[in-house]
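INFO  loader      accepted 1 record
INFO  loader      residues=249
INFO  predictor   begin
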Amino acid sequence: MSDPEPEQSSVLPPVAGAEDTLAQRAYRLVRERVLKGIYPPGAALSRRRLADEFGMSLLPVAEALQRLVNDGLLESRPRVGTRVRMLRRDEIRDRYTLREALESQSARLFAQRAKARDKAEILRLAQKLDGLYADWESHDADADYRFSVRQFHVNFHLRIAEIAGSPLLRFAIEREQDLLFSWLSDTAAQIHPLPPHYHSELAESLCSGELNRADEAIRHHIRYALEELLKFAEEPNGSRWRMAPRRAE
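INFO  predictor   done
INFO  writer      dumping tokens
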């Protein structure tokens, strides 16, 4: 099977034009590496090393890292430094509770507002996504393929929110997806293959036009994902903080 379609496979911000600033460039570079797992959960980030690598001063790098802290992808501690955020088991559960609430409303609005062409698009994307996951095991050692599939998966959910017609709701869902995506970069290879037609059945419920059916389907979808994920969740012991440099400048 071919790789995921490029136009549907990126959760990263679009490349900016000539007005792109150094801070924006540093933000995109670090964010991409976090989401790809190049900087895994708990990894310490040094502003000075990043500035040297990116060929820029400390100021835009510091601005980018602070923005990522605000996004929830990084966290910082005084006199210790900045690291990629690690989620505890209870926090993962809490994040999925919030995600369920957000995506439940997204599903209900989609069921209410989606036009025929929107439904056809979601059904097509769901079928494509099922095919990509069905081919997952044959690409088990291919980190780039797994990352692309996971990006496609995120965009599938964001597209539902876009069609639902609430930019703020879409933004909130994307923010939660980013945080979970970064943590899953360490565990994605361990997650069991999804049931056949997993997303196609979800899409059919969303496209039914029945609000309660759409709501129930998306809640089941997210709860199943949480149950599978918690099988592999481990409580971080904080040792990576102790391994971090005393000053990450």
